[in-house]
């Protein structure tokens, strides 16, 4: 796969989907963002535009470059519009059947040479690939959140992933300016196997009164060298997403350290999901998830 401009589809206009679409448009690819819900699709497009607008305001992009990036992205609620796509990145809700069904539907729409990437962080790449007649072209590509700001992408082959698809995926990640880490098709891959238990431990420490959110974040920044504290990160990821990922990993691994603490359920029930709702562990006037 060469590094020339391509037509790329991103399935799902939520936090991860809009972030990945931002990455594609910034890298020079014509990007089609798909969602079955037109309102959610528009929010996703607005999120992408907001990233570029903020980048221009901060002097990280000149106005002309930012506008060209914005012009590269279009939205659709019709899978048939994805026919010309050379790469499809699935970033929908973590449902095995939904992901399988989407790939099965796309089999008869896109070319047989189109790469299928799944951004799953908890489900089996092999299981998702089984929905396609061409399992050899399905590769797991887990973008770290927030996708426009984080360099790392975990790459995991399914049981029947072809060598050509793996190689093309690594080359495509490099063209995006991403660093690929190859891992195995196992629950949570590398990052979430470490991250989810750690985040749960931080949440439990806060709930137990070990420290404030500010002091725990400061301790992590000052001692571990992380770019942001756990509660700032959780506010970007979203407590609903954390709950979903943690629960699915617990269901597969049956290790209690993955089970989301009670505070997570309380925050989700209250609608305190993080930056996208204006309130999580912290309060936010600017609800844009990235670009700061």
What does this structure look like?
This protein has 292 residues and is of the alpha/beta class. The protein has two domains: 177 residues, NAD(P)-binding Rossmann-like Domain (Rossmann fold), CATH 3.40.50.720; 86 residues, N-(1-d-carboxylethyl)-l-norvaline Dehydrogenase, domain 2. 45% of the residues lie in helices and 13% in strands. It contains eleven helices and eight strands. An eight-stranded mixed sheet has the order 3-2-1-4-5-6-7-8, sandwiched between helices. Helix 1 crosses helix 2 and helix 7 packs across helix 10. It is globular and about 55 Å long.
Tags for this model:
single chain; alpha/beta; Rossmann fold; N-(1-d-carboxylethyl)-l-norvaline Dehydrogenase, domain 2; 45% helix; 292 residues; eight-stranded mixed β-sheet; globular
Shape assignment: globular
E-strand count: 8
Radius of gyration: 19 Å
Return the CATH topology of the largest domain: Rossmann fold
Q: What's the structural blueprint in terms of helices and strands?
A:
Elements: E1 7-11, H1 15-26, E2 30-34, H2 38-57, H3 63-71, E3 73-76, E4 87-90, H4 96-107, E5 115-118, H5 125-129, E6 138-143, E7 152-157, H6 163-175, E8 179-183, H7 191-207, H8 213-224, H9 230-237, H10 239-253, H11 262-270
Parallel strand pairs: 1-2, 1-4, 2-3, 4-5, 5-6, 7-8
Antiparallel strand pairs: 6-7
Helix pairs in contact: 1-2, 2-3, 7-10, 10-11
Offer a quick outline of the entry.
With 292 residues, this protein is of the alpha/beta class.
